[in-house]
Structures are given as C-alpha cells and as structure tokens.
Amino acid sequence: MPPLENVLVVSAILFSIGVMGVLTRRNAVAILMSVELMLNAVSINLVAFAVYGRIPFGNFTGIIFAFFVVVIAAAEVALALGVVVRLYRSRATVNVDEVNLLKW
Amino acid sequence: MTATEVVFYIIAFFMIAAGLGVVLFRNIVHAALALIMALAAVAGVYVILSVEFLALAQLVIYGAAVIMLVLFALMLTRSRERPQAVFGKNRPFAVAVAGGLLAAFIGGIVATEWTQPARDDIEPVPFQEIGDVLFSVWAVPFEVVSVVLLIALAGAILLSLPDDEEER
After folding, report:
1. What is the rounded (10 degree) CA torsion for B107, B111, B117, B118?
2. Chain B environment of A26 (Cβ under 8 Å)
3. Are A85 and B77 in contact (CB < 8 Å)?
4. pLDDT digits (tens, 9 = 90+) for A2-18
5. Which of A71, B14, B22, B87 is most buried (CB neighbours < 10 A)?
6. ipTM
7. Which pTM does this prediction carry?
8. Which residue pairs from B113-117 have beta carbons closer than 8 angstroms and sit at least 24 positions apart in sequence?
9. Interior angle at CA B77, CA B59 and CA B27, nearest 5
10. pLDDT confidence bin for A57, thresholds 50/70/90
11. Which of A2, A83, A95 has its CB closest to that of B159?
C-alpha cells in the first residue's frame, strides 16, 4: 500500500488539473469533462480515508460516498449534456463565453 | 518500496498524464479519449486501495456510459465552420489559480501529522459487506439517489426533445 500522503497528493494534482481545465476551456463539454476529473479526485480522497482508517467492524462511509458520487455524476452528465444540446440548437455554439445573453 | 507501491506510482503517472491531456489537447475528441484513460486509471487506484467493487462501478458507469454520453454530445455539437480558439483568454490566470490551489493542498497534506497505522495487511473490501451496509445503514440515501437519477434522466430527455414550433 502506498502511504496515505502520496494518495492524497496524487488526488490533489488531479483536482488542480481539473480546476485548470474548468477555467481555461471554452467548450461546455470540455468543461464538463474537467469537472469529471475533479469529482474523481475527490472520490479518490474519500476512498483513501475510508480504507486507511478502516475499523474492524466495517466503516464504509467513504466508499459509499464515492459510490454516490459516481451515481450523482452520471445524473449530472445526463442533465448537462441535455442542456448543451439544447444550447447548441438555440445558439449554434457551445462556447461558454459566447453565451452571454444574461450579461449586460 | 513494495510492488503495490510501484504499480500505484505507474498508475498515478498515467492518471496525471491523461488528466493533462484532457485539459490541454486542442482536439476535443482526443481530450475525451484521454478522459477514458484517466477514469480507467482512477479505477486502477481503487483496485490498489482494495475496493474492487468501486473499481468495477467506475469502469462500467464512467468508462462506458458517461464517456459514451460525452462523445455523443461532442458529435451533436461539433461546429466546423471556422477554426476557433480552444482556450479562453484568462489562461495565465487559470494556471495561477490551479497552481496556487495545488501548492495549498500539498502544503496542507505535508504539514499534517497523519496518525496512520502501518497497514500492509489490507484485505480486499468484500462485496457482501458493502452490500450489507449499503442496504441497511445507507438504505434511505440509496433510495433518494435512485429517485434523483430517475428525475435527472427524465429531465434530460425532456430537455433534448424538440419544441413544437422548431425543426420538426
């Protein structure tokens, strides 16, 4: 088993990469993919704490939370891609900086 | 350094490389393919951490279903009329924010005294125990999540239906 610190550092790197993607990308789908990276980094953290801090009678809270994260991410992706397709149909672009209808 | 650790570092290297690919590839389909690799590497980390059930769920849900949705969305929304900038104008700012965040995280991780037992003896988390906990302690959240998923999928279908007045 790798030390807990190294697992945490790896997930921190992955999370930061995701933050960079969210802030730099223009395409809405690419932003969504970067958000997936961030969610996965958080899941790694949850699982690492659950596994390394496991008590004999089974404390699976972190693992169950990571499982819920996967499910919620699936729901989020489905909804967000529905919104993206909708956006493309009405504005013919999915670049988030060109969708400035609410900006004044 | 044990063999498990070596495998972990190899997987972590591939995960970070694929993550950088997701963020930096100019061709967005290549970025989606890099995302497959990153998600598979996360599943590998779950295996290293002895949570095989989550690794399987990760591969089936993320690696197959979510990627498939993303690729379909890319195909449906491709605009090829003009070459366009892939990245926004605030790129140096974004790199600074991500780097600062990473520095803060790593500083916090290094500065913390982890009271971590030496555990080379971790056995795989058994599927049955996860199932028992999921359907006893976490039964109500599980049902709520199911309803959330159902509503989200129905909403996604509703969102992508064409309006009556347009393009039918």
Report:
1. 60
2. 84-88
3. yes
4. 888 889 999 999 999 99
5. B22
6. 0.88
7. 0.88
8. B114/A4, B114/A5, B116/A3, B116/A4, B116/A52, B117/A52
9. 65
10. very low
11. A83
